[in-house]
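Quick one:
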Amino acid sequence: MRDKKRRGLVRLSPMVPADVHAAAYANAKAAGVSMGKYIAELIRRDQLNEHGRPVWAGDAFGEPDQGELPMTG
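Output:
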């Protein structure tokens, strides 16, 4: 969804646990940037494997062919 007030930006509105939000907010504040800039930089710096999957995803979510439900959105 494009934000009409901010050219070239789109809204990212994930729902996360309160403790994760608090940590992200504190980290963004410590970095001296907005939550949007902080999260954008995390995504830009995400390391991907040879298949384009984040290198940490196997540990967090298991392997993609283990019968998990597909992501939607």
